[in-house]
Amino acid sequence: MAHAHSVKRHKGLMDWLTTVDHKKIAILYLVAGGFFFGIGGIEALLIRVQLWKPMNTFVTAQQFNELITMHGTTMIFLGVMPIIFAIMNAVIPLQIGARDVAFPFLNSLGFWTFLFGGLLLNLSWFMGGAPDGGWTAYAPLSSTTYSTTHGVDFYTIGLQIAGLGTLIGGINFLATIITMRAPGMSFMRMPMFTWTTFVTSAMILFAFPAITVGLVLLSFDRILGANFFNVAGGGNPVLWQHIFWIFGHPEVYILILPAFGIISEVVSTFSRKRLFGYSSMVFATILIAFLGFMVWAHHMFTTGMGPVANALFAIATMLIAVPTGIKIFNWLFTMWGGQITFTTANLFAVGFIPTFVMGGVTGVMLGSAPADYQFHDTYFVVAHFHYVIVGGLVLGLFSGLHYWWPKMFGRVLNETLGKIEFWTFIIGFHLTFFLQHFLGLIGMQRRVYTYLPNQGFDMMNVLSTIGAFLMGVGVIVFLINVFVTARKPSGVENDPWGDGRTLEWAIPSPPPEYNFKQLPLVRGLDAFWKEKMAGNKEMTPAEPVGSIHMPSPTIIPFVMSVGLFIAGLGFMFTTDDFGNSFLNFMFNNYIVVIIGLAITFGSMIVHSLNDDPGWHIEPEEQGGKGVEA
Amino acid sequence: MVNQHNNEGSVVKHRHRHEGPQKHVVAFIFSIVLTAIAFATVAAGGVNTAFTVMLLVAMAVLQVLVQLGYWMHLKDKGHMIPIIFMAGGFFVAGLCIIAALYWMWW
Amino acid sequence: MTTHAEQATNKLPHEPEKATLEGRNKIMGFWLFLAGEAVLFGTLFATFLTLRNQVADGPSASELFSLPITAAATLILLVSSLTSVFAIQAMHRGNKKSLLTWLTVTVVLGLGFLCLEIYEFYEYVVHYGYGMTTSAFSSSFYTLVGFHGAHVIFGICWISLLIFQVAKKGLTVVTAPKVYVSAMYWHFVDVVWVFVFTVVYLLGKVVG
């Protein structure tokens, strides 16, 4: 491999559009995910403003339906999932001692399809109205009879495109972890975050195809006049519920497992102790994933499946508390007797544990089928899932971002601002959602745009709204922290926490494009810590210094995603009358769809025909320069 | 990434053992026979419905296992991870089918 | 472990598709993709099974389906799966000409299958006026069988593109994994068809 292939290196915007470097794709995911998280947050605040007093008219009932639908959909699919992918992209190749992911091209494709799917979904606000059937889009609410705008079409097609990106990302991380681990890193020597990423990706692989089909069926019902969920044509709305939750329940574990991984890393680093019960943690993770697929119908207790099905799913649901409990105790035992430092990352991690336990306890309560008849569709459910998603996942994400920020950007986030951020966020969170348990128990229904006064709801709703704004303040302080930190000079040391245990802390912050000049030899769990304890300053290399092969940047993933965006937009307007003969011709004859698909498949063919020879970084070029951030 | 090492399936076997077409043809004949049994049972009719259903499903599952094992090489060495994941995929597919058969109408 | 397209065919290792890390990644990634596809078709089958008796005013499965056409389509697809096995064996022998021949036979058989399916759908639509909107049964039938048909179309285009590539670039450690993966795909399409003819057509005749 002596001869170097010339490669076109892009600068500025083109660099970001064409990059296949996992570290840059991580930053793209973080920026895009953060953007959608902000939109979802604003929607949440608007919901809370509407609910702060009884009989409020801040938004109409229709607007309220659109807000709750888009808040849930945006937060889950476009906000937190991409931020999870940002952290996975930034960390996984480094943790397993790899120079990149298995499929750099697909990594880029996954990001761009997610982004264009998300943009398409949010375009609905400006094109006749957002989806209004709830994030679960239950038929017949989501049918053309009850949802007459194109909102639900934006939901089905936008999520379809974004979901494709997620599936691609999942396959990519699975393959990466299976085939790209550094010499010596057996499965049982993988860091816990790598394990949870692996299991999460497997769940993505098995869960997302189900929603793909569900969305196809719903869009066929709405656009082609099929009868899947249309009772008059023999369809069955319960079918949608099953398909949605066969995907939807694993999805919530897809969200929480990465947070478990982050917490495991952070707690053990800042306790200066090895993770307690590593193998039981691995076992519990796999068990949670397995059980996660067996419990979908606990969302449907009130549908009328009968006592046998309800009992079965109730028992399966409560079983999940066992492996989750194992994890909780292991974190506590990791801290037990450790030298704990309360950095912001660790504060978020320690705050996570009791908060998540509360969400878990209400989960077991909801898992009891008879009690669920009382809780169903009340604010008790809203409180429960916000405790696990915000109190669990979002605290985990903040913890992970503070922990790995220096690795991603070469700068440590400000600790004082970080602590302000933590306290405002967590106090605001509990103020908002703790009260909602009681609102639900005394009968306040979710998804209703207002309520009558003097039912005991009034005061708690005021406090809940105040809490929501406090959470908003916490997020704004985080953003201020990001800007303040960005103005500081880059270039912290390899291991800014001083107690890093895993491989990512053995290389510069931010790492050079090729991550590892020489692939490290892994001699045990917590590979870097093990070397430190043996008195070594760095990892033992597993190979001599040599020329490093890199994949070329490419614009094709971006173009493919644009094609899907165009095709999706074309498909949802096929039956519309635009009052313009040219537009009618273009849309009603599927010409826009064909153009879009031609762009996508044409780019695929171009990509397949032109084999990427890649390019090489020679040993003399391998300085300490990192990726620009 | 050319300079990568890996632990899983990295043992490139350089045995120049050219497997003949025999076992694949046998798998093919096996598939044809299973298919023929299925079609013939339905075409002949008159057989107990519940038995026919079980027979058809058994023929299909058997045929799929043969094709996955022989034509797609799942029975060869170094396919542990593909087997685990394919089994996972079929397991979740099976859950969907069970839901369809038992918890859809009442 | 370099990926030089110029590498001479006669120096190829026995299993050229697994000679590079890229090749092995591709195969592993594709297995994972197929596992996802299993769930995709599982969900479609679940949909079909849910709605199999919901014929509304339209014809039922046993009135509609013709076993001879299904049997012919099954035979064609099964043979094409075997020919793609032969293609891979030719590749392992390093015989480019034989590889191209078997791939071409596979594509032709795939086209034959597709013609039968188009004929079948055409019959239903024109003679029975039986379309997507007729009943929940028809929606689920066209979606399930149509998804499989779309996979066949994609496979035909893909393998054709690979025939062109192998002819042009030769059999190398870059092209070999592509061919191997496309053969995996084609087998999987056949595996799905086994369930389609069993569940949709045969069981449709028996219990429909």
In short:
The complex is a heterotrimer of chains A (629), B (106) and C (208). By secondary structure, chain A is an all-alpha fold. Chain A is built from 19 helices and 2 strands.
Care to describe what's here?
The complex is a heterotrimer of chains A (629), B (106) and C (208). Chain A is an all-alpha fold and 629 residues long. Chain A has one domain (21-554): Cytochrome c oxidase-like, subunit I domain (Cytochrome C Oxidase, Chain A, Up-down Bundle), CATH 1.20.210. In chain A, 64% of the residues lie in helices and 1% in strands. Chain A has a two-stranded antiparallel ribbon. The longest helix of chain A has 35 residues, at 61-95. The radius of gyration of chain A is 25 Å and the shape is globular. The relative contact order of chain A is 0.11. Chain B is an all-alpha fold and 106 residues long. In chain B, 65% of the residues lie in helices and 0% in strands. Chain B has helices spanning 22-44, 49-71, 80-102. The N and C termini of chain B lie far apart (55 Å). By secondary structure, chain C is mainly alpha-helical. Chain C has a single domain, classed as Up-down Bundle (Four Helix Bundle (Hemerythrin (Met), subunit A)), CATH 1.20.120.80. Chain C is built from 6 helices and no strands. Chain C has helices spanning 21-51, 61-64, 67-92, 96-128, 136-169, 175-207. The termini of chain C are far apart. The chains are: A mainly alpha (629), B mainly alpha (106), C mainly alpha (208). At the B-C interface, helix 1, helix 2 and helix 3 of B face helix 1, helix 3 and helix 6 of C.
